[in-house]
Amino acid sequence: MTNGTGHTGTTRRKFSTLVGVIAATTLLAGCGPDASGPAAGGSPSPTPTPTPKEALLAAVPDGTEGAFRFTGKDSSSDISGVVDPAAKGMDLTAAYKDPEHGFTTRMSFLLVKEQLWLKVKFTGTEGLTGLPKLPNRWMELDRAKLTDGETAPTYEGADVGNAGPIIEAATSVEAKDDRTYTGVVDLTKGQAGEAVGEEEVAALGAAAGQVPFTAVVGPDGNLASLTLAIPAAGKAKAWKYLVKYADYGSAPKLAAPSGSAAQEAPKAAYDMLNG
């Protein structure tokens, strides 16, 4: 996820970067118990107590928890929505304010299995011209018509906030009594840097190896939040990378829009997305 300025095309590329990172989420392969069982006549081996890092990783959503809500924040954007593993779907919305012209672009992607829809709304556009005129409904996209189809969302797992890869890169994890975990993450390890933002991590220099985090696990045993305290670097101010998961199993299930709620995407939508 990178900072950007400029016109609508820049806004499009910025959002594409965001959803590309989301789409690149990698599920962590859990290690199950030994299925061989104890030897005949022997006593079962005691179950080892998981380390704080293992316990925290086990709380990351893996798709078995039902639909849930997601909120995320990085150096330049906020995103929120619903993840529905049963539908292999996501309904994610992000808003960006153009720093030069002051207008805001609010973009939503709805993904259900392989089908993809887009909804766009511009605000604060008084006195501006040249923005595309788009319908206020879900526009179904044909991936073949996208110049860079790899940046369009695809469902790659429930952990859309990339909490798993970040926790995997933790060099220390301490469990508190209130289901809170604290520790340090090395953002140069594994996929942590890609999750947070490669440019932002590169700008941190040596500080990227010692980024403090706080995580909270809910009473249901599922991850509720993960916060990275990114330090200031050069001209960049300190900021927080935030992931929140909530309403496991009770969030609305996702389905393809129908009737007047949807239409085929017009040429103007593809022109905007293809920059």
N-to-C SSE string, H for helix and E for strand: HHEEEEEEHEEHHEEEEH
Mean pLDDT: 83
Number of helices: 6
The rounded Rg comes to: 21 Å
Q: How are the strands ordered across the major sheet?
A: 7-8-9-10-11-1-2-3-4-5-6-12
Q: Please provide the count of β strands.
A: 12
Termini Cα gap: 18 Å
Enumerate the spans where pLDDT stays under 50 for 5 or more consecutive residues. Answer: 1-40
Structural class: alpha+beta
Largest sheet: 12 strands, mixed
Helix content: 10-25%
Shape: globular
Proportion of strand residues? 25-35%
Commentary on this structure:
This protein has a twelve-stranded mixed β-sheet. It is of the alpha+beta class and 275 residues long. The radius of gyration is 21 Å and the shape is globular. It starts with 7 loop residues before the first helix and ends with a helix. It has helices spanning 8-23, 52-58, 163-168, 192-196, 198-204, 267-273; strands spanning 68-73, 78-84, 89-97, 104-112, 115-123, 138-140, 170-175, 180-185, 211-217, 223-230, 239-246, 262-264. The protein is built from six helices and twelve strands.
Describe the protein's topology.
Blueprint: H1 8-23, H2 52-58, E1 68-73, E2 78-84, E3 89-97, E4 104-112, E5 115-123, E6 138-140, H3 163-168, E7 170-175, E8 180-185, H4 192-196, H5 198-204, E9 211-217, E10 223-230, E11 239-246, E12 262-264, H6 267-273
Tags for this model:
single chain, 275 residues, alpha+beta, 12-stranded mixed sheet
